[in-house]
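Case study 2.
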Amino acid sequence: MKDRYLIIDGYNMIGQSQELSQIAQENLEEARDQLLTAIANYNAVIADEVVCVFDAYEQSGTGSEYMYHGVKIIFTKEKETADSFIEKYVYDLYDKHTRHITVVTSDMSEQHAIFGAGAYRISSREMWRDLRENEILVSKKLDGFNERKPRTRIELSNEILEEFEKIRRGNNHK
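Prediction:
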């Protein structure tokens, strides 16, 4: 069992992003993909297990679950909201001695239910801020890494290059 869980209300996160909200009006799947990519890039930093839950409330089906770059994606079953799924999920996971559960949502009724089940909460807006800060941090680390990378070519004097050329041609007899 994992110790640190981050459970995200996916459509709530999309709704709190002006950019993704606009994309979602045209193409909901694209908005979901962009959210999941941002979360996957953040995944290793924040928790042992990251779960992103999407409503299937108005769609028929039994619900589904799959992994996306280390993030568990859950589509709720027909007539089940992400809120009610998350509340039950947190309740089932909770163990006050070993678990640290954080839920990302801006839904007030959901907040009260998860606090009652012993989970922490951050708003979708705060989560977007954290994702942006992490992106900046990662790109700074990559820049630093690239600066420290050893040079791929060793500077050699013309004399040494001429000697290597002689060896390469097989006429290294003096």
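The longest helix spans residues 124-148.
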